[in-house]
């Protein structure tokens, strides 16, 4: 099968890797140096029409879309117009991620549990809501638009919440969501779906802030553990109260959701609730989940695009994975670019995904905020963490930022592995 992967980050490297492992011919645009080592990288305009035409000209059997911006731009719609199967939601369905205010209203319409919230299209109204004293601190302030996993402030004071709102409303046509702070463990559930049938990946847990102890500013994700322990009863509740009604609701509203439904959840004392939906594989969750996939991602993508996904064929290994993100100095503000990188050799069960790199006259260099996703798998989570941290230490990346407390929320500790 010939597969075209659209994207150039760590998630997209993981998607390419999964398809290559299954024996497919893989093309990618715009790609990155890590992807170029295992697939054919194509130079193409990145607008939806050009990408769809590229897929058709290349005789692509299926397109897998990585980043959310392409979905919001309608690349799946453009592929459909040329009768090229594409795995991802159409533009209207991707609004579930691209417009948090709409997404919250959708959850309310369909009884999907989430935090109490209000949405605002004007700064004065949002500030008045805070000044009215109806909020309980801490309070969560979200930019309603696409912010690459960021754009969220957990405000400990009204002044901090006001500052976040003022920042959001510096942009034209801005919207903000103010919602109650939820307590509990945060977990990510990914559903591969054709719009009706779905298969769930193992639960994973990202670590969102830049520093240990869940401190510092929000990032796009600094590391992942998988699987995160969720009992069968809770998984049944997640299926019945979140995944199934979301897919039914999207279909009922005329926008069936095909692709990867990302449910970012909080396991609160009163049950699982949605923190946010995304319309694609998480990044860096994909780098943790996909190395555990035993079955054929490209075949699942093609089946889903045709409306024929068989969930029983989606299989994951009974093992664990850990992802350590190496971020550039200055991230999540203005990251330093151009730092020379030297990657160590890897063993079976280890891979270094390129998230923000470029090659300059044969020298690999940093070219983004989150630069590398250092991933390891092992029979146990503690062993996977030990392997991932050991591999990260062997990367020559001056000034790299990383979190050293992945898994600490559940008492996981890195330990040596025999692998």
Helix and strand arrangement:
Layout: E1 2-7, H1 10-21, E2 25-30, H2 33-36, E3 40-41, H3 48-57, E4 62-65, H4 68-72, H5 75-81, E5 86-87, H6 95-98, H7 100-109, E6 117-120, H8 123-131, E7 139-143, E8 152-155, H9 158-168, E9 176-180, E10 185-193, E11 198-200, E12 205-206, E13 209-211, E14 215-218, E15 223-226, H10 232-252, E16 259-268, E17 271-278, H11 285-289, H12 297-305, E18 320-327, E19 350-354, E20 357-360, E21 363-366, E22 370-378, H13 381-393
Parallel strand pairs: 1-2, 1-4, 2-3, 4-5
Antiparallel strand pairs: 6-9, 7-8, 7-9, 10-11, 10-16, 12-15, 13-14, 15-18, 16-17, 18-22, 19-22, 20-21
Family: Belongs to the GARS family.
Protein name: Phosphoribosylamine--glycine ligase
Organism: Deinococcus arcticus
Give the beta-strand count: 22
Strand order of the largest sheet: 3-2-1-4-5
Low-confidence segments, given as residue ranges, are: none
The CATH class of the domain at 2-91:
Alpha Beta
Care to describe what's here?
This protein has 419 residues and is α+β, with helices and mostly antiparallel strands. Among the domains are: 2-91, Rossmann fold; 116-180, 2-Layer Sandwich (Dna Ligase, domain 1), CATH 3.30.1490.20. 29% of the residues lie in helices and 26% in strands. It contains 13 helices and 22 strands. The chain has helices at 10-21, 33-36, 48-57, 68-72, 75-81, 95-98, 100-109, 123-131, 158-168, 232-252, 285-289, 297-305, 381-393, and strands at 2-7, 25-30, 40-41, 62-65, 86-87, 117-120, 139-143, 152-155, 176-180, 185-193, 198-200, 205-206, 209-211, 215-218, 223-226, 259-268, 271-278, 320-327, 350-354, 357-360, 363-366, 370-378. The chain has a 5-stranded parallel beta sheet with strand order 3-2-1-4-5. A 5-stranded antiparallel beta sheet has the order 12-15-18-22-19. Strands 6-9-7-8 form a 4-stranded antiparallel beta sheet, sandwiched between helices. A hairpin with a 2-residue loop joins strand 16 (259-268) and strand 17 (271-278). Helix 3 packs across helix 5 and helix 8 (123-131) packs antiparallel against helix 9. The mean pLDDT is 95.
């Amino acid at each position: 099968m010939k597969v075209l992967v659209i994207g150039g980050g760590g998630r997209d490297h993981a998607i390419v890797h999964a398809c290559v492992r299954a024996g497919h011919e893989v093309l990618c645009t715009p790609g990155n140096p890590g992807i170029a080592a295992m697939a054919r990288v194509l130079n193409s305009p990145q607008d939806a029409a050009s990408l769809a035409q590229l897929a058709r000209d290349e005789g692509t059997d299926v397109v897998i879309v990585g980043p959310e911006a392409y979905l919001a731009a309608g690349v799946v719609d453009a592929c459909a117009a040329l009768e090229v199967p594409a795995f991802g939601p159409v533009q209207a369905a991707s609004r579930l991620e691209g417009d948090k205010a709409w997404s919250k209203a959708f959850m309310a319409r369909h009884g999907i549990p989430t935090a109490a919230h209000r949405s605002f299209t004007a700064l004065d109204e949002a500030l008045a809501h805070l000044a009215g004293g109806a909020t309980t601190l801490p309070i969560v302030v979200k930019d309603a638009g696409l912010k690459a996993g960021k754009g969220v402030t957990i405000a400990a004071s009204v002044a901090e919440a006001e500052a976040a709102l003022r920042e959001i409303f510096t942009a034209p046509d801005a919207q903000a969501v103010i919602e109650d702070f939820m307590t509990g463990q945060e977990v990510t559930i990914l559903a591969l779906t054709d719009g009706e049938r779905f298969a769930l990946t193992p639960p994973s847990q990202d670590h969102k802030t830049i520093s240990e102890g869940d401190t510092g500013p929000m990032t796009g994700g600094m590391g992942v553990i998988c699987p995160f322990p969720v009992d069968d009863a809770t998984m049944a509740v997640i299926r019945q109260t979140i995944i199934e009604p979301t897919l039914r609701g999207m279909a009922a509203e005329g926008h069936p959701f095909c692709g990867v439904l990302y449910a970012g959840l909080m396991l609160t004392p009163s049950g699982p609730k949605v923190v946010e939906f995304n319309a694609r594989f998480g990044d860096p969750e994909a780098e943790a989940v996909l190395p555990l996939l035993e079955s054929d991602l490209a075949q699942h993508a093609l089946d889903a695009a045709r409306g024929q996904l068989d969930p029983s064929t989606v299989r994951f290994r009974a093992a664990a994975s850990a992802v350590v993100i190496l971020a550039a100095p200055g991230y999540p503000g203005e990251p330093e670019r151009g730092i020379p990188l030297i990657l160590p050799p890897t063993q079976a069960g280890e891979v270094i995904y390129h998230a923000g790199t470029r090659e300059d006259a044969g020298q690999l260099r940093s070219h983004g905020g989150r630069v590398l996703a250092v991933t390891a798998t092992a029979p146990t989570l503690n062993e996977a963490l030990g392997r991932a941290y050991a591999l990260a230490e062997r990367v020559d990346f001056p000034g790299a930022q990383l979190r050293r407390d992945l898994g600490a929320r559940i008492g996981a500790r890195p330990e040596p592995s025999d692998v």
